[in-house]
């Protein structure tokens, strides 16, 4: 895969017959494309396996992630999705959601000396998108600012590759080994350190929503550790609860602080978050 010009799998080309296609991102083991054709506009996710190098162990799960996400989206009743296999891994396509993500939308709040304050109604939309998933009995597992797309009509929570809550075909399943440490709840970080795996939960999603709102509004991570700290050191700081004070003004700051409570049982549910934000 490395070195060659990236291409869409032929089955995807046949299904979507692109009139325009744009590679949105390519990173180790995955590509995302923005594709338009007669059926409409789709995000196409293509996964392939990563072989071991001197610096990295092999990561066979990157090849499975798009099919796993496709199966989850199907379970959730999302229409206009498809998934399958190609020669190097699996793929899915799903409706394209137009709009900035949470981090980009709040960029002006993070500028030094800015008088812009984060808009609680946007925070409420993010909570509502997560609440919709929790109401269906699923936990997301990978809540982060880039996964909230703030559209004109509504906010979408994307990247369900790690979600837990219903049946996923065995051949496409893989264990949850944590997410981006900035958004990992202490109990998740602790479990990953102890066993290499963890269980996504609604409570951990609420923590991750709080950390996402905080970093998007202020640029600060919820927990203090050096930028270049190795991942286990970052996880240890999270597990130990080395929290930074939340410096977001007003009620929004109070709600974020509650979401970042160390013990999962002390955090509000996402419905309670929605209620609190709805009153701001
Ligand atoms: N349905 C979608 N609509 C619009 N953009 C999307 C969609 N799915 C993915 N993207 C874009 O691609 C990026 C990576 O997608 P993501 O689902 O997070 O994949 P990965 O598994 O590689 O993290 C997102 O941050 C977003 O910019
Ligand atoms: Mg992602």
Automatic annotation (TrEMBL):
InterPro entries: Kinase-like_dom_sf (IPR011009), Prot_kinase_dom (IPR000719). PROSITE patterns: PROTEIN_KINASE_DOM. GO terms for molecular function: ATP binding; protein kinase activity. Residues 1-280 form the Protein kinase domain. It comes from the Bacteria. This is Protein kinase domain-containing protein.
